[in-house]
What does this fold into?
Amino acid sequence: MTMASPQPAPPSAGRLDLVIVNWNSGAHLSACLEAIAASPEDVSRLGKLIIVDNASTDGSAALDGFTKLLPLTIIQNSDNRGFAAACNQGAARGDAPVILFLNPDVRIRPGALARSLDYLGADYARRIGALGIRLTDADGTTQRCCARFPTPWRFAGQALLLDRLIPSLVAPHFMREWDHLTTREVDQVMGAFLMMPRMLFEQLGGFDERFFVYFEDVDLCLRAKQSGRSVTHYAEPCAIHEGQGTTRRIKDIRLFYSLRSRLLYAGKHFSRTGLALTLFATLILEACMRGAAAALRGSAADLRATLSGYRLLLGALPRLGLRRRG
It folds into this structure.
């Protein structure tokens, strides 16, 4: 039986620390910081704004122009430590009662930070362990960014595209059937904007650093729920989210880390049978479907990226150390 952790004190009495992990994000990071600096209401609620740079080579970490506008703390890593580890590194440098993890390809609308912080600190929201807000495309279209927790059968169904062909049988990962225009409790909010009381974050041990990138937010939200807290999509404030801002040019690497993290998640949270089904769905079903789709499209580049991503995964598989529960 999972025991609920002690309830943290209302966090809105203080400020929030904002952690952004940067890896070759180009102009996205500057645009992200400009949006924050343009909202005095939000700047006034910042404790520290911590940029963790994972050995970028594109000059995006040169942020001298923002040092007088924002309470910047910049951490320069000599190598790419991964998203989860860098988030933990950034969180450890702050002390505000609330932490916000924000992707560099997100531009907040004015007041989004302050309103989210006030909502999280309200008496009626004391059970909230993780908070996300409405994310939109640049044209204002609301993104379907909240998701369901994965299951072995859902992974298998999604590998066969049943979530697209028969969504009534296999629900999609993202909650596409809901317009995201109302506030509600969900399974998972996207790590692009993830706010959490520091006390809970520390009680949970932060992000699991075995997830280099992808699924670290799913895992954290699941552990928050298992601790007795809720995960909430707060629809009033919003931010523009481009998505895949730093990985769209490296499809094979993105595929590798996505599949790797999926298997790590299955090894951590699924039974032995569930892990076996996830392995079969990932290494056999999905590999065949991805290869066939690339071939049918006549896209040699997509086929090469798929083959390269799976080759990397197979090479890494013996070292993953997947835990198998009974």
In short: The two ends are 17 Å apart (CA to CA). The beta strands are 16-22, 46-54, 72-77, 98-102, 106-108, 128-136, 184-186, 193-197, 230-241. Confidence is low (pLDDT under 50) at residues 1-13.
